[in-house]
Design brief:
alpha/beta, Rossmann fold
Length: about 500
């Protein structure tokens, strides 16, 4: 791709002055339309050092309302950022609907600069590319517009610009040893860039190569490309909204073709096979609880020492015992090293992002524990059944969730997921006990009773969820919960066993 570029392209000052005003006006108009239609936009500037990324970002934002965009300079990971999966810092900086995020450098740093500096292992390169493509595909599928611009200059021009920067004491700091090293090995770095283009030039996030030897020509090309992509996005969103409005008036539902579920670990009637008679006597429970909590206390310290993150997700029926299990799990743990994240209905801000965004924001750094009371699986349960997302969205979520959990596991996290299972009779019993106890009435709501009416629908959805998303790197554990003592011990035992198993490696 790079060899086809004509780097001699230029634009006169007169032509530039003629072209820019209508382009600037149109870009501002499109920003307003994207805001009204709640279209999130990501613009990534990549390219050779000294190709003018900062300069062209500055020119681009001159035509934008500053209240509607953010600019992120993505340099080398900080010590804190290295304690998360590498895409964490980009997930947390994805834009809400209607906003524009502009990146000076991007998630491609991992396969360019860090690869050149030999900080990305060759054995991990394929995995990094797949993570990047997954990241872009998930966001694109959710409606995010992704524009990737690669600014290109030749070796001679790059060296000339470095020399000019170095001669001025006010700009000399912008050229470091790494910049000069990449110029000295321009061909090697160019080959890495070519490989990156070939592996990540996807229809949902294509690359635009910008001949950046002449700043005026490059500016106009960047404007024209951004405008063309946003115009297409605005038309597509407006068209979909009209189709949905027309279908609503006709009493129809617009959905995409059903996605065939992949074969999973569990059968479709897995919950029917759970032995809910399992129980533990109180004396045995108290003895075993004390023992397991002491072990958990020690293992928690070892996780911190070894810098191993732990992600635990709790799902289950209302009154299934999630809170009680979490309380016993954390009772003897150092509160500085874990966080319990209660997950409720998404806020307005959370709804304006990809549904996984709020969970990425709560993932633990190395050595810490995140415990989710309800999780990202709401997408394939309550959102699915209550109609809060489309059929295509919840069916797509199985793959997206597996991919997110694999990102965590590949980073080194232990990922465990518990389904707290009780039968319908036990749930009713617990509901009534809560209603009769003034100190527990806050735990029961009208919505809990309404959900019981859809028990069979939820049961079917849960079975499919378990079937589709229990993996070796993020297994589901079904906890027989009619007896609370048995359930709490099983959770503690499962967690401590998983930690001990990891510490052997």
């Amino acid at each position: 791709m790079l060899e086809k570029l004509d780097l001699s392209k230029q634009m006169s000052k007169e032509e530039f002055k003629l072209k820019m005003p209508p382009l600037q006006s149109r870009l501002g108009e499109l920003q307003r339309q994207c805001r009204e239609l709640k279209v999130p936009v990501m613009i990534a500037f990549e390219g050779f050092d000294a190709a003018g990324k900062g300069f062209h970002i500055g020119r681009l934002i001159q035509s934008l309302d500053p209240r509607g965009f953010s600019v992120y300079t993505m340099q080398e990971e900080t010590k804190e950022e290295r304690m998360y999966p590498f895409l964490w810092r980009f997930w947390t900086k994805t834009p809400a609907g209607g906003r524009i995020a502009i990146y000076d450098g991007s998630w491609y740093r991992k396969v360019l600069t860090e690869r050149f500096e030999k900080n990305t292992k060759k054995s991990k390169l394929s995995e990094q590319y797949e993570s990047i493509r997954t990241f872009e595909r998930q966001l694109s599928d959710d409606g995010t517009v992704i524009i990737k611009l690669l600014l290109v200059i030749d070796k001679k021009e790059q060296k000339k610009r470095f020399r000019k920067l170095g001669e001025n004491k006010e700009t000399a700091w912008r050229v470091d040893k790494g910049d000069l090293e990449r110029n000295a090995h321009y061909g090697t770095y160019r080959c890495m860039m070519e490989e990156m283009l070939l592996k990540t030039d996807d229809t949902y996030a294509p690359w635009t190569l910008v001949e950046a030897m002449d700043k005026r020509y490059a500016t106009v090309k960047i404007y024209e490309r951004v405008i063309a992509v946003l115009e297409e996005a605005v038309l597509n969103v407006a068209r979909r909204q009209q189709e949905n409005e027309g279908a609503a008036k006709a009493g129809e539902t617009v959905t995409q073709k059903d996605v065939q579920a992949e074969d999973g670990k569990y059968g479709k009637d897995v919950l029917a096979q759970v032995d809910l008679t399992l129980a533990c006597p109180k004396k045995e429970y108290q003895k075993e609880l004390k023992k397991l909590q002491k072990k958990m206390e020690l293992l928690h310290g070892e996780l911190y020492r070894r810098r191993i993150p732990l992600v635990i997700g709790f799902e289950g029926w209302d009154a299934g015992g999630k809170g009680g299990a979490i309380k016993r799990l954390t009772e003897k743990m150092d509160p500085r090293g874990f966080a319990v994240i209660p997950v409720a209905s998404p806020s307005t801000l959370e709804k304006s992002h990809h549904y996984l965004w709020r969970f990425w924001n709560s993932m633990p750094k190395d050595g810490h524990i995140a415990i989710f009371d309800r999780t990202w699986y709401g997408r394939v349960m309550v959102e699915r059944i209550e109609g809060f997302c489309t059929t295509a969205e919840w069916q797509r979520a199985y793959k997206e969730i597996r991919e997110m959990e694999k990102e965590l596991a590949d980073h080194g996290a232990i990922v465990l997921k518990f389904w707290m299972h009780i039968d319908k009779e036990e749930q009713e019993k617990r509901f009534r006990e809560r209603m009769e106890n003034p100190q527990k009435q806050w735990k029961i709501t009208a919505e809990d009773w309404r959900n019981r009416e859809k028990w069979e629908q939820y049961e079917s959805a849960v079975c499919e969820m378990l079937d589709q998303t229990s993996t070796e790197y993020a297994p589901w554990v079904i906890v027989e919960g009619n007896d609370k003592y048995h359930a709490r011990l099983k959770v503690l035992r499962t967690v401590t066993d998983a930690i001990e198993e990891r510490l052997k490696k």
